[in-house]
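Trying the structure run again after the queue cleared.
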Amino acid sequence: CHICGYDFTSEEIPTKKRRLPVMVDGELVLLDEHELTERQEEIKIKLSENKHSVKQEEKKTEMKRLSQEEKLQVLKNGLERKNNLFEKGKLWL
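Done. Tokens:
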């Protein structure tokens, strides 16, 4: 329309756009629908990256099963006094 500027060919229905309050980096900001979907996509990407890094860490720190002899050796010698397995564990991690 040449008077109001409304585009009749557009499929978007003219409505009052609400801006939604959202926490971004510890601050409360107002986002419209487009900004909100962008933010959600960013969050999904970051979550998938975090899941990938967690899986990599789990692969690095897989638990090793002790044999019966090793278990008895640990019980016999103790954990801290003679073998100092706590220190070995700290160094290993």
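DSSP finds three helices and two strands in the chain. Worth checking whether this holds up in the mutant runs.
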